[in-house]
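Dear support,

I submitted the protein below through the web form. The confirmation email said the job was done, but the results page showed an empty box. After a refresh the structure appeared. I'm attaching both so you can tell me whether what I see now is the final result or a partial one.
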Amino acid sequence: MQFIQPELHSRRAFLRRSAQLGIAGTALPFALNLAAVGEAAAFTATDYKALVCVFLYGGNDYGNTVITYDDDSYNKYSTIRGGGGGQSAGGIALAKSALTPTLLAPTTPLAGGRQYALHPSMTGMTDLFNTGKAAVQLNVGPLVVPLTRAQYSNSNRTLYPLPPKLFSHNDQQSVWQSSSPEGSTVGWGGNLGDLALSSNGTSLFTCISVTGNAVFLSGDSALQYQVSTSGAIPINGVKNNVYGSTAVRSALTSLIQQSSGQALENEYNRVTARAVGAEATITSGLAGVNLTTAFPTNNPLADQLKMVARLIGARTTLGSKRQVFMVSLGGFDLHDNLVSQQPILMQRVSEAMTAFYNATAELGLADKVTAFTASDFGRTLSSNGDGSDHGWGSHHLMVGG
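What the results page shows now:
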């Protein structure tokens, strides 16, 4: 089910349609039937476009992220989550009165009078949605074939196949990022990068991670270039003087980049030279970017998205026209302390993604960059007493063009 504002830009359509498509028998979120959504990629275009994956590690609790608000639906939600049939909180349900400030107002009212609100801590995301700058995708997850509850409970997996290794953190993280369980080596973000390589002046900067190594950005040809929230990651031995000596540094630089008669040494030297050159290019590009958009402090996701915004600002220096980025935030495996801990996480997500949108607007690219959330899996709507357990489909957010 989609719950989205009118699609003014093709990347939103790309994400929505991809959530409904299949690859290798699994209709995973944002799957890669790229031929069907080629207009969203437009890799031969001369303008700039980017996708940013915001991965919420641990399996975010969707039930308290996008909450039913109309009376009938809210009462069912509250009863299932332990709050009874009233309008106040109980168990892990959120009080309806707390949801009023984050009530979503789609341009076209939903059928049957259905209403939704975001978590009370997500005021920034609410404002983006209500001004047409964000969207909600409901009930997204891996699927082989549609199943009823009875079919899911049936043990005949030939007739009623399930996606591989449901409820496993590592495997479902990999399924979301690549369509296959843990062990997969190519992700769909990297596959998008494969298509974009020829459009970028420097192919190395097509897929960039600010959150370490992840299969999402690994392509058949595209490499994932990793940066920190401070910028490019240098090779200290060739960046700084060694024992205070520039001569030793120069000698070491020459040594690790020189040609050799050994194939492995040559490859090592080639990669090292590439890393040294890339670090210099990134550092030079970032030096020319001066964003005035305020990003929240003490927020690791905001720090990562600020770096993404700065890299986008450096796109001309980097020679980039099409890019795919990945950032992440952990801590969402809330079997316990859901009511006390999720508000902190949701506030970080909302504030970080709102600031990022504002930064893209400052860069004049708000309609060219789309950030979207992803997570291991959804969680059970019923409470385990103090939290929720591993589930399947989930609700997700998209911000930007």
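Response: this is the final, complete result; the empty box was a page-load delay. The chain is about 35% helix and 15% strand.
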